[in-house]
Automatic annotation (TrEMBL):
Any coiled-coil regions, as ranges: none
InterPro entries linked: IolE/XylAMocC-like (IPR050312), Xyl_isomerase-like_sf (IPR036237), Xyl_isomerase-like_TIM-brl (IPR013022)
Keywords: Isomerase
Protein name per its UniProtKB record: Sugar phosphate isomerase/epimerase
UniProt cross-references to Gene3D superfamilies, sorted A to Z: Divalent-metal-dependent TIM barrel enzymes (3.20.20.150)
Record organism: Cereibacter changlensis JA139
Domain Xylose isomerase-like TIM barrel residue range list: 22-262
Residues in the signal sequence: none
GO molecular function annotation: isomerase activity
């Protein structure tokens, strides 16, 4: 498994220590939220050449490559997939801006979560929402393909304030209708825990019709992840049996101090899970 960590796990002042710790543990992948990666930029989605070069130097010095981007609508006031024409245009512009930055940085995957920006309003039918979303993501998929990246849709549980594509099955069905080569699935383990579907993960992963471009090892409400190495190993085994060979990224919010100690413990559990999954594979 190719292991990565999202930079939402630390604040910019802890960046150097976090990078050193990732390097010490052999982690080579870095998932970024632009607002944290380019925190010294007036516009993190349009960093200057020097700002970009400095951020990349720091990551490369630790042997890290950028493998995914999240928080795509950071700072996009009034953006809504199902909003008014003005809100939909703000959504479109912000998403195209994020896709453009991913192309500039050669990031192969973007995670579309944004639960509150994809709420279907009262009065809009499910059929209307589906058609609007299909048109929107067909255009965004075309832009992602031109940029050399993929847009990974993530199921967001209702507990996060979403009411559209809240389960993995719903996201998979939407993807089947869209049928776009540059729009894929991001598999989020925390969402499966919250939806009560994690005990069926082996069957769920095996039945997916859509390709998976990225995996978030997460817990409900972005608590330190993984919480349990055995459960994470079950997920990794299911992914391995499916033939998934992409990045598996810890996604957790910044914990209380000490940040690096908490992150290091989480990484230890994930690496233990990798070992357990490898042992399981050798026995089958």
């Amino acid at each position: 498994m190719k292991l990565a960590v999202s930079n939402i796990a630390w604040s910019p002042e802890h960046r150097a220590a976090a990078y050193d710790m990732l390097q010490a543990h052999g982690v080579r992948g870095l998932e970024i939220a632009p607002g944290l990666f380019f925190d010294r930029s007036a516009d993190p989605f349009a960093p200057t050449g020097e700002e970009l070069a400095q951020a990349m130097r720091e990551a490369r010095r630790a042997g890290l490559e950028l493998v995914s981007m999240q928080a795509l609508l950071f700072g996009a006031a009034g953006a809504a997939l199902f909003g008014s024409p003005r809100e939909r245009e703000a959504f479109r512009s912000a998403m195209l801006r994020a896709i453009g930055l991913a192309g500039r940085l050669s990031i192969p995957n973007l995670v579309f979560g944004s639960p509150r920006q994809r709420v279907v309003p009262e009065g809009m039918t499910e059929a209307e929402a589906q058609e609007l979303a299909l048109r929107s993501f067909a255009e965004l998929g075309d832009a992602a393909r031109r940029a050399g990246t993929k847009l990974g849709l993530e199921a967001n549980p209702a507990a996060y304030g979403a009411n559209f594509l809240t389960t993995l099955e719903e996201a998979d069905a939407f993807m089947a209708r869209l049928d776009h080569p540059a729009v894929t699935l991001t598999l989020d383990l925390g969402a499966m825990h919250m939806n009560g579907s994690f005990p069926r993960i082996a069957d769920c992963v095996a039945r997916l019709a859509s390709p998976i471009s990225h995996v978030h090892v997460s817990e409900p409400h972005l608590a330190p992840a993984p919480a349990d190495a055995g459960q994470a190993a079950t997920a990794l085994t299911a992914l391995s049996r499916r033939g998934y060979s992409g990045w598996v990224s810890i996604e957790m919010k910044q914990p209380p101090e000490p940040v690096v100690t908490t992150l290091e413990a989480a990484l230890g559990r994930l690496q233990q899970a990798v070992g357990l999954a490898s042992k399981e594979a050798s026995l089958t």
